[in-house]
Design goal:
33% of the residues lie in helices and 18% in strands. It is of the alpha/beta class. The protein is globular.
Length: 376
């Protein structure tokens, strides 16, 4: 019954958000704590606690919330997510719907995007208030390093950890492609230029001692990769996605595919070189024809904002709006069960001060490196 409800909710969300996307791009200046509208977003956890534990904590927490006065008018927020068929857009839609139904402070709309790179540009330009992106990209932006050397900002702030995105290196069954080295001379899709997908793929390729010059690189949107493979336009594609990825699931039903297994020494060397990644196992049976576990890499994902976009009280209220109504959005996507109010383990960019207040109220032990100067 929950699955059916989730599908219906997703359809309704898609229709309602398409009608309201015009609200995105109109960024409002945060108001003062006593009169402003707080915001709402999501968090993640490994599922260590039961649903009853979560409900009990929600009822027990919130004394600070009771001291705040709702604004006379709700503040409109825009969230930069992912492609309209991807997990970020669906998860963001479920959360937005919950906030819109229950918040006295905010209304939320989603903005579809090609990935974290576009989301960061839109955040910088004031087109959105909140974004979803990969942890590695967020870290490089925050520290102005790697692809963001001299072009990032230390005002980026974390809000909520999302489930990890596993790298799927997909090839046709029987192609003989078993390793990164076997991709030499092949037509390979890596995502759109500057996207989180493409950044992850380029690092995996570089870690194998190869470069784009060794392949016929196709920079196309991940939503187009499955069709490109079916049509014979590409020999392989790199697709980091929360498993099971719907596009890969559908492709496996109509074509014989294989997902590359990465050797343990390769992943070890990769993790020693790059920040924001973890080793990951895609369990056997995740996709049709997949008879064994697949070892690969994954990047954490998170919801973020700019330090100046919200006052401390606004962010605190937004976090409460999201998690106090978790039952409304947890059914929107199969990975939402992992998103809770206590697991911040994958975050590597400091939290917003209002998120610090929220997590402390929930009894979460926050590492020193995640506490921003303004919350010390």
């Amino acid at each position: 019954m929950k699955k059916i409800y989730g599908r219906i909710l997703t359809v309704l969300l898609g229709a309602s958000m398409m009608l309201s996307l015009a609200a995105c791009g109109t960024k409002e200046t945060p108001q003062t704590a006593a009169t402003a509208a707080p915001a709402t977003l999501v968090a993640e956890e490994s599922g260590a606690r039961t649903e009853s534990d979560h409900t009990a904590d929600t009822k027990a927490a919130g004394e600070y919330l009771d001291t705040l006065t709702p604004p006379s008018a709700k503040r409109a927020l825009c969230v930069g997510t992912g492609s309209s068929s991807g997990a970020w857009y669906i998860i963001g839609g479920g959360m937005a719907n919950a906030v819109n139904l229950h918040s006295g402070w905010f209304t939320v709309t989603n903005e579809a995007a090609s990935g974290g790179g576009e989301n960061l540009r839109n955040l910088e330009e004031g087109n959105v208030d909140i974004i979803m992106l990969n942890c590695d990209m967020g870290y490089y932006y925050y520290t102005s390093a790697d692809s963001y050397a001299g072009a990032g900002s230390d005002s980026l702030r974390s809000m909520i950890a999302l489930p990890s995105s596993a790298m799927h290196i997909v090839v046709k069954a029987g192609s003989g492609i078993k390793s990164i080295a076997d991709l030499k001379g092949k037509s390979v899709a890596v995502g759109t230029a500057g996207s989180g997908y493409e950044s992850f793929a380029s690092k995996v390729i570089a870690s194998a001692g190869m470069s784009y010059d060794d392949m016929k690189i196709q920079m196309i949107n991940p939503s187009q990769m499955a069709d490109a493979m079916k049509n014979g336009q590409i020999d392989a594609f790199f697709y980091p996605v929360q498993a099971p990825g719907s596009a890969i699931t559908e492709l496996a039903l109509s074509a014989d595919i294989e997902i590359m297994d990465l050797p343990s020494d390769f992943t070890k060397n990769f993790l020693n070189e790059y920040v924001g990644y973890v080793s990951y196992t895609i369990p056997a049976g995740t996709y049709k024809g997949q008879d064994s576990d697949i070892s690969t890499l994954a990047t954490g994902q998170f919801i973020a904002t700019d330090r100046e976009n919200f006052t401390e009280d606004e962010m605190y209220v937004l976090m409460r709006d999201i998690f106090d109504n978790r039952e409304e959005w947890v059914v929107s996507h199969n990975t939402c069960a992992e998103i809770t109010d206590t697991n911040i383990g994958s975050l590597i960019v400091p939290l917003h001060a209002g998120a610090v207040k929220f997590y402390r109220e929930r009894g979460v032990e926050i590492p020193k490196e995640l506490i921003p100067p303004e919350a010390e």
